[in-house]
C-alpha cells in the first residue's frame, strides 16, 4: 500500500499551492509522522532565486476527498525560512501565537465564504455577449435580470452551478471539515458556504482547506471559483466573508450582551481603519454603503441590521448572550489575519494592552509578528 499526502501551502498572493508526496509501504499516516518538506519559493513570489528554498511544516491533516481509494491525506502546512523563521507571508504563525495567548477565552469563529463561479470569463448563468457582425459591441457581457430571485433560489432559471456546490459540500464533509451550511447568493453564479463554529486557529485552517477543495473541484469542470469581492461592477452586492465571533463569556455569561459583546463591538469601532486595512483587497468596491453593509469609511453596528458593519442577530439580542457578526471582511480576506485581529481587538487588547503586532508573549515567534507589520498590505489577499 501507499499513502499519498498532498502538502498544501499559501503563496505570496493568497493563492493555494500543493504538491504530492508518496509514502511507500504504509497503510495510514499520522501528522507526527509527516516530515517537513520544501518548495521553490522563487516560483511563488516568496523567496529570492539565490536562496529559494521555503520550508513547509505540516500543521493539520484531513482525509483527502479527491483520493478516496485509501487513507490519503491533505496536509495543511505553513511556511518558514531554512533558518526556521516564519516567512513574511506566513500569517498563520502570528495568528497561532495570538490564539495561544488567549486560549482560555475559547474563541469560536463561523466564517461565511461567498464566491463566484466563472466559465470562460463569464459568471455561471450569465448570458453570453450578443455578438453582432456589424455595428455593435461584440465583447460586452450579456446581463441577467437584476438581483432578487437568485438568493437561495431553486430552478434552472435562477440557480447555476449547484452540482459543484453539492459536490464541494460532500467533499468538505468527507475531509472532516465543520461546514455548517451552503446557500445560493444574490448574483447568478454566486454561492456561499459556511465553516464553523470552530475554536481559535481551526476556523481559519478549515476555511483555507475548504477553499483549496473548491479550487481543485472547480478545476475538474474548467471553472474558476473567484474570491473577487466585486467580480462584476454594478448593482450587485459583491462577495464577502462575514466572520461570526464569540468567546465563552459572550456565549455563556450573565447579561453578556451588555457586559461583553457590546463593549467588544465598541473596541472594534475604535480600530475600524486597522481592521479594514487587513480585511481584503478591493473591498472598497464592495463596501460602498449602497449594497448591504456600511460604507468602508463608516463603522456602524446594529441589531439584525444587514446595513451595519457589525450585526447582532435577533437570537443573541433576545437571549442576552451569543455572538457578533463582522460583515466587513471581503471574500478574498486572509482568515488568519481576520480572526486573529478580531480576537485581539475585541478581547485581548482591552485589559492587557497588548498590541497586535508587538504582542508580548512569553513564548512563540515574536519576531514574525513584528515583521508582519510591513507585510500586512501584501498579505491581505488579492485575486
Ligand atoms: P447569516 O444569517 O449571516 O447568513 P450564516 O448562517 O450564513 O449567517 O452563518 C452563521 C455562521 O455563524 C455559521 O457558520 C455558524 O456556525 C456560526 N455561528 C453560530 N453560532 C456561533 C457562535 N456562538 N460563535 C461564532 N460563530 C457562530
Ligand atoms: Mn450567510
Ligand atoms: Mn451571504
Ligand atoms: Mn452573514
UniProtKB/TrEMBL annotation:
Pfam family name, one: Gln-synt_C
Instruction: Specify the GS beta-grasp domain's residue ranges.
Output: 3-84
What UniProt keywords are attached to this protein's entry? ATP-binding, Ligase, Nucleotide-binding
The EC number(s) given in the record are 6.3.1.2
Instruction: Answer yes or no on keyword Cytoplasm.
Output: no
Family listed:
Belongs to the glutamine synthetase family.
Under which name does UniProt file this protein? Glutamine synthetase
Species in which this protein is naturally found: Hondaea fermentalgiana
Amino acid at each position: 500500500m501507499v499513502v499519498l499526502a498532498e502538502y498544501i501551502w499559501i503563496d505570496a498572493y493568497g493563492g493555494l499551492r500543493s504538491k504530492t508526496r508518496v509514502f511507500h509501504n504504509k497503510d495510514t499516516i499520522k501528522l507526527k509522522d509527516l516530515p517537513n518538506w520544501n518548495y521553490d519559493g522563487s516560483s511563488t513570489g516568496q523567496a529570492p532565486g539565490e536562496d529559494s528554498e521555503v520550508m513547509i511544516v505540516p500543521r493539520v491533516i484531513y482525509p483527502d476527498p479527491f483520493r478516496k481509494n485509501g487513507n490519503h491525506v491533505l496536509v495543511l502546512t505553513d511556511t518558514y525560512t531554512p533558518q526556521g523563521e516564519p516567512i513574511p507571508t506566513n500569517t498563520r504563525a502570528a495568528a497561532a501565537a495570538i490564539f495561544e495567548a488567549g486560549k482560555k477565552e475559547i474563541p469560536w469563529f463561523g466564517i461565511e465564504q461567498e464566491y463566484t463561479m466563472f466559465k470562460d470569463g463569464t459568471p455561471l448563468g450569465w448570458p453570453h455577449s450578443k455578438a453582432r457582425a456589424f455595428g455593435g459591441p461584440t465583447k460586452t457581457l450579456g446581463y441577467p435580470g437584476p438581483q432578487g430571485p437568485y438568493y437561495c433560489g431553486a430552478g434552472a432559471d435562477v440557480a447555476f452551478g449547484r452540482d459543484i456546490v453539492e459536490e464541494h459540500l460532500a467533499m468538505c464533509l468527507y475531509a472532516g471539515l465543520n461546514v455548517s451550511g451552503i446557500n445560493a447568493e444574490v448574483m447568478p453564479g454566486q454561492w456561499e458556504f459556511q465553516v464553523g463554529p470552530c475554536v481559535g486557529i481551526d476556523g481559519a485552517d478549515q476555511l483555507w482547506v475548504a477553499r483549496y477543495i473548491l479550487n481543485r473541484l472547480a478545476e475538474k469542470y474548467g471553472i474558476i471559483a473567484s474570491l473577487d469581492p466585486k467580480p462584476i461592477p454594478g448593482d450587485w452586492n459583491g462577495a464577502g466573508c462575514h466572520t461570526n465571533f464569540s468567546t465563552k463569556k459572550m456565549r455563556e455569561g450573565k447579561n453578556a450582551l451588555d457586559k461583553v459583546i457590546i463593549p467588544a463591538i465598541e473596541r472594534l469601532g475604535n480600530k475600524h481603519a486597522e481592521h479594514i486595512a487587513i480585511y481584503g483587497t478591493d473591498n472598497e468596491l464592495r463596501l460602498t454603503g449602497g449594497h448591504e453593509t456600511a460604507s468602508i469609511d463608516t463603522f456602524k453596528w446594529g441589531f439584525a441590521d444587514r446595513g451595519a458593519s457589525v450585526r447582532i442577530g435577533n437570537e443573541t439580542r433576545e437571549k442576552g448572550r451569543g455572538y457578533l457578526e463582522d460583515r466587513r471582511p471581503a471574500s478574498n480576506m486572509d482568515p488568519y489575519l481576520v480572526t486573529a485581529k478580531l480576537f485581539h481587538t475585541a478581547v485581548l487588547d482591552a485589559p492587557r494592552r497588548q498590541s497586535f503586532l508587538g504582542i508580548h508573549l512569553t513564548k512563540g515567534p515574536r519576531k514574525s509578528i513584528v515583521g508582519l507589520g510591513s507585510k500586512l498590505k501584501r498579505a491581505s489577499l488579492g485575486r
